[in-house]
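re: ur question from earlier - yeah i can do the single chain one, its not a big deal. heres the input i used so u can compare w yours
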Amino acid sequence: MLCPDCRGRAGNLNCARCEGSGEVCERCKGTGFLYRLASDGQTVTVECTCGKVSERRRKVLWPFLERYSSLHGELQHKSFENFKARPGLPEVQQAYHASLNFVRQPQGWLFFNGNTGVGKTHLAAAMANALLARGQLVLFLNVPELLNFLRAGFHARDVRDPDFDTRLQTIKDFPILILDDWGAQSDTPWADEQLYLILNHRTERALPTVVTCNLPLKDIEPRVRSRLMNRHLGQMLEVIGPDYRLQD
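and the output i got, formated as tokens:
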């Protein structure tokens, strides 16, 4: 029997109706896998789109991911209440209200682009803190730290330490992903490719995603830029204002 709300995403953590209810996907019968005949005649196993395998992967890795989250230090105390939306900056006010709306209903994409010190990271952390306080799974990662997290997977030796492929797939599938400080990473073909794979995967599945970026749009890798600016998925907001850290 398919869940009428989420259409069969077995045990979907974001679906109040079927979470823990035992509803199973009619395609994979709750296993999470489908079997396909490849062009060479061999039978191959693929993950079912119901998300059961992704959900299991998230549950196993969540304690591990919490340790590697970039949401630490002062970022854990960022909230909408202590965000100072200075008067006379309509773009900042718009970003503030867009962030509140995303927390109320986390769907689609939210892309904040603009100069440093206008509050993009504060709003991104406030969203993450508010969602976590509500019991939702949200992964907050600074982009350079995300890439370091992926690279460390190449050297994993312990079964409790996920390998590169597991780390990448988990981030691609995570229920809500917030990526802060896009463009601060070293611009290498490998980094561009991993970031593109993450965004492309989440674009195809319309997974809730927030990205903050300080780069001029023309300096973002073209494939990535086309996905970040996809207005069919969500909002792209230019957040403009003086650096509040330089203000008295």
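The chain has a mean pLDDT of 80. not sure if urs matches, ping me
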